[in-house]
């Protein structure tokens, strides 16, 4: 699974030019980190330890509530100036973010996050469409 996730992350990076990409499962109403790209900004172990110290609950996060109720991609071009931005975005130093749901039927079981850290990124409609198609192609692996 790790190898296939890294393959997905590489394709998402080629589409968006954003390097910090992660997959979280949703378990017991909170995010459960699975795998993240290794970057200078934030490595996999630090990412998991921050999540362990500061759990992210779906009901406490406006964007996660929205994506669970209406499974479609959501993006925030400028985290610092968007009122929907979650505390966790600031914890991880995220400037722009694309969140892609991984659904089983109508139930969201996880999310793929493309996070621009250290600079703003304007996600285009085409990037979002391509990323959504890719995540759908990898859905079985992500749900595995």
Automatic annotation (TrEMBL):
This is GAF domain-containing protein. Residues 3-139 form the GAF domain. It comes from the Bacteria. Gene3D superfamilies: 3.30.450.40. SUPFAM superfamilies: GAF domain-like. InterPro entries: GAF, GAF-like_dom_sf. It holds the Pfam family GAF_2. It comes from Cohnella xylanilytica.
């Amino acid at each position: 699974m790790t190898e296939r996730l890294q393959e997905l992350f590489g394709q998402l990076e080629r589409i968006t030019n954003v390097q910090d990409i992660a997959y979280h499962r949703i378990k017991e109403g909170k995010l459960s980190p699975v795998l993240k790209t290794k970057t200078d900004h934030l490595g996999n172990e630090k990412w998991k330890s921050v999540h362990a110290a500061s759990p992210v609950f779906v009901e406490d996060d406006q964007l996660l509530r929205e994506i669970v109720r209406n499974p479609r991609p959501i993006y925030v071009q400028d985290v610092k100036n968007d009122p929907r931005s979650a505390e966790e975005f600031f914890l991880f130093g995220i400037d722009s973010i694309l969140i892609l749901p991984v659904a089983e039927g109508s139930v969201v079981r996880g999310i793929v996050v493309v996070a621009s850290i250290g600079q703003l990124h304007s996600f285009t409609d085409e990037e979002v469409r391509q990323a959504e198609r890719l995540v759908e192609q990898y859905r079985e692996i992500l749900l595995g």
